[in-house]
Amino acid sequence: MLDDDVNTMVTVTYLLRHVAGLSPDDAAWTMLRVHEQGSAEVARFAELAEAEQLAVRLQSFGLHGLVWGSS
Known about the structure:
Layout: H1 9-18, H2 24-37, H3 48-60
Pfam families: ClpS
GO biological process, one term: protein catabolic process
Protein name: ATP-dependent Clp protease adaptor protein ClpS
């Protein structure tokens, strides 16, 4: 996930909880990491398609992120 100047920290935390399925603590930690460092890993998946689905869902709410596979 990438930081932006549009979404509030409350909105990002809410979406990480309800769209990405993170716990309240993990959502808050991830939001703070994105805010302070500019990016953070949200999740890892066995299949690339699963990661792409989550990225599309988050993007539909205005969040920005990247998906990459391992080498």
